[in-house]
Design goal:
80 residues, 3-stranded antiparallel beta sheet, 34% strand, elongated
Length: 80
């Protein structure tokens, strides 16, 4: 039997001064709205888009133990 899961939505957005910024949302529409806002702000500042600018659906386990296992597989390094 497959474990229960849920989706969260990740926005990857590249800022030329800060690098890649990652934000998380509970709905795809909120994530897309945020990304559109960030793109508008960059355009208004005359900044050319570069790097990732996307919304990704991330499927997470609903069980706390499985979530911790997922985090340990996927978020164990700091790329900063």
């Amino acid at each position: 039997m497959r474990s229960k899961t849920f989706n969260v939505y990740r926005v990857d957005f590249h800022d030329p001064h800060l690098g890649t910024m990652i934000s998380w949302f509970t709905s795809e529409s909120k994530a897309k709205s945020y990304l559109a806002k960030m793109k508008r702000e960059q355009k208004a500042e005359g900044i050319e888009p570069s790097g990732p600018q996307e919304v990704l659906a991330v499927e997470l386990p609903a069980n706390k133990g499985e979530l911790v296992e997922w985090l340990n597989r996927n978020f164990t390094t700091d790329n900063g």
